[in-house]
Amino acid sequence: MAVEFTLPELGENVEKGDVVRVLVAVGDVVGKDQPLLELETDKATIEVPSNVSGTVTEIRVKAGDKVSPGQSVLLVDADGDGGAAPARDAPKAEAGGQTEGAPPEAAKAAPPRRGEAPKDAAQKEPTAARQDESRERDKADNSRQAAGEPTTPPGPASEVPAAPSVRRYARELGVAIGDVPGTGPGGRIGQDDVKGHVRNVLAGPGSGMRGAAGPLPDFSRWGEVEARPMSNIRRKTAQHLTAAWQAPHVTQHEKADITALEAFRTAYGERVEKAGGKLTVTAIFIKIAALAIDRFPQFASSADMANEAIVYKHYRHIGVAVDTPNGLLVPVIRDADRKTLTEIAVELGEVSQKARDRKLSLDDMSGGVFSISNLGGIGGSHFTPIINQPEVAILGVSRSTIEPVWRDGEFVPREMLPLSLSYDHRVIDGADAARFIRFIAEAVERPLSMYV
Amino acid sequence: MSSAQLVVIGAGPGGYAAAFYAADMGLQVALVDSDPNPGGVCLYRGCIPSKALLHVAKVAGEARHASAWGLTYAEPKIDVDTLRAFKDGVVQRMVGGLGQLSRQRKILYIQGRASFVDAQTLSIELNKGGTESLSFQKAIIATGSRPAAVPALSIDSPRVMDSTAALDLPDIPKSLLVVGGGYIGLELGSVYAALGSKVTVVEMTGGLLPGADRDLAQLLHRQLEKTLHKILLNARVAEMKEGKNGVKVRIEGATLSAADKDQTFDRVLVAAGRKPNSAVPGLEKTKVKIGDRGFITVDASMRTGEPHIYAIGDVVGEPMLAHKASHEARVAVDGVLGRSAVFEPQAIPAVVFTDPEVAWCGLTETEARQQGRKIEVAKFPWAALGRAVAIDRPEGLTKLIIEPSTERVLGVGIVGSGAGELIAEGVVAVEMAALASDLSLSIHAHPTLSETLMEAAEVFYGHSTHVHKPKRK
């Protein structure tokens, strides 16, 4: 008996992923939990385990395909009889309200002519031949999407679960109702779903990002050019930072005297190393930031403008920007206030490695309340980091230099570390930001001052 | 030459709804029709007069049936002139009201026949004589439909009627042949049967009401067998000849007896569908296109090939129903006003006003089966319902067509007394994407026939109070 394996839910807010590799081939015998696909989602590369067992009879995706939860991935023969014809009675997954079996061309044509036409096109149980044909078209469709060609929104679907008033509302906003994910019972689409969809679209590519800059000129007029598709990570970073940039930013600069801290790092470095970590400046700042937030709780808040509220988070999960060959990733160290420096250093080493290996899970990257971006390893004096919204502040760390510091009537050489604190001026006042960054600097210079 | 921001050609339930709405939205509107008042076929020669007659038929039927309840009346004495006057009074009252509403809205009502001079100008042949030119910025064509003539049956005889002639109620024939087992033939056939005619219905297909689900149609068939003389299925009229004492008719059909094949009827009603009135003179001077079966081609916004000309109602396609036309009227006027509107109903109610009535909306079981679609059908027989039994109408059936994965109600079908009123809840349920649980959890007044919708939803879950039908695991 043929069993269909469809892509399971990938995690909160993850709607699709790119197939990096298919890990099995036709004829392979697979067991439950065996990885079938390697998938690159917005921020992580994950392996998708099987929930079926048997012999693989057909694989319906290939590397480079965009896949969504519910999509048919492969067929296995549960009895191990590889020659059996694939059963087609499994319910078809619906992505975005569009029946998978429908030829995309039909669905994308201008509003179908009246009457029975849309029902016929979208709902007839596809025969195997049509299924194959539509898969071919799906592939073609995907490659078009990858090439950046715009896709026309589908015409009015005849049976989208939305009330007439909601359908009209969507139409007036220019939204194809079939594109809106419904959150009501039976997938019913409410007015709030339409609003949410519009918000997402506006924050997405092609609007904020492209719209702000306008269409690009034809660069090839001035020389040779090459266009490469954005990776998922790049695209998501671009979208996220464009949206994050909407918060009114101010960056406060400071310099911290880390002469004593460097001595401390030398003294304790070996001990931490034995535990498997590296006592880095970043690790220490994670700890200090967590403690500073205790004193200044608004630095772990979020502005909820819709409800005119400020949400204070009573946990101290600190995000750390990690530079990887694939792009910027921000893993989160949880409960940094309750962990020892050694624990933080070990964990930071682990997550940084996972980030570079693209093994971070979405969980590893969510829940932060404050972020740290340390570019000191590369250089630079100060920079203006962008807040990792919906957080409200980020600490940028640059490269330390030995500087003459006037102290007790003479210049003394001190190791000074440039710090840059970007904060969301909607919820944090300038004076508080100055106090916060000064507090951090003093915590480094005179650790006990924190407890005074 | 007069001018209008919007001209509406045809003042039926599509046309007058469009004209009234447009006027309410501040447009300067002209409305052209050959009848003295707005109303069109629906009010003058269709829905409304037939409902007046069907009401009388129902009263007659109930009076006959009342002896079973110990209430015996004499066989009714029917005064055709009074009956016709009642029906005409209903029509006059309604169209007169529409005329008044049209004047109150300052609509320029032109009684005449319009033809296109070009895509911006009409020439109207006035009923009172002469012609008038009218220039317009936008137009809505709402010219409706007419009874389809069957060439083989088009003999020159006053005994052969179309639905219009039948509604005029020339007399009460002793015997009447109805050609066509669709809703028009069955409604008018029922009227004549109630008035005392021996009515025979000939239907080409294997069942009455082609298009309706078979279980609904069969239930109606069983009831009609009691009031109609004969229902001949899989049969067609091969020949009709005017005879001395009536119309001689030869009926063909494999299963017919010899007596059925050659008969003479006092009158014949040909009710073999309707044809769109798309042959508006001069239309070829515009870019308006006429497509399959003579319907004007429109897009989802009711726009024709000429972007400033819209078309609505029977002239653009099936189903040819007044309420579909009025809804399309709003879509077209919204388009005229520059709003974004499309015609995309998920449920158009269809009602057959026989006794019992048959009504359905949304997806039918037949369509679902044709599409090979997975559905579940939940049926509630009226015999289990207190109110239905109390009014001695236990023969009804209410059913829901449900999508099993979401439990969404995709369609509703009802046969039974007052089904046409009950279907409204079904339409709202389908349009609102209601789940079966939405219907079962909404309190329905007891004892009413509306409970059948709630109970049908409960049947889906296997816990209807009045039907014991546990859900198969």
3D structure, described in words:
The complex is a heterodimer of chains A (452) and B (473). Chain A has 452 residues and is α+β, with helices and mostly antiparallel strands. Helix content of chain A is 30%, strand content 23%. In chain A, strands 11, 14, 17, 18, 19, 20 and 21 form a seven-stranded mixed β-sheet that branches. In chain A, strands 1-8-6-3 form a four-stranded antiparallel β-sheet, with no helix packed on it. Chain A has a four-stranded antiparallel β-sheet with strand order 5-4-2-7, with no helix packed on it. In chain A, helix 9 packs across helix 10 and helix 9 crosses helix 11. Mean pLDDT of chain A is 79; it is low at 80-156 and 207-212. In chain B, strands 1-2-3-4-5 form a five-stranded mixed beta barrel. In chain B, strands 7-14-8-9-10 form a five-stranded parallel β-sheet. In chain B, strands 17-18-21-20-19 form a five-stranded antiparallel β-sheet, with helices on both faces. Chain B has 473 residues and is α/β, with parallel strands linked by helices. In chain B, a hairpin with a 4-residue loop joins strand 20 (397-403) and strand 21 (408-416). The model of chain B has no long low-confidence stretch (mean pLDDT 95). The longest helix of chain B is centred in the first third of the chain and has 25 residues, at 80-104. The termini of chain B are far apart. Chain B folds into three domains: 2-147 and 275-336, FAD/NAD(P)-binding domain (3-Layer(bba) Sandwich); 151-272, FAD/NAD(P)-binding domain (3-Layer(bba) Sandwich), CATH 3.50.50.60; 350-461, Enolase-like, domain 1 (2-Layer Sandwich). Chain B has helices spanning 15-24, 40-45, 47-65, 80-104, 163-167, 183-195, 214-227, 258-261, 322-336, 365-370, 386-390, 419-431, 436-441, 451-461, and strands spanning 2-9, 29-33, 108-118, 121-126, 131-141, 145-147, 160-161, 175-179, 198-202, 230-232, 236-242, 247-252, 262-265, 267-270, 274-276, 309-311, 350-352, 357-362, 376-381, 397-403, 408-416. Chain B contains 14 helices and 21 strands. The interface between A and B is medium-sized, with 32 and 34 residues.
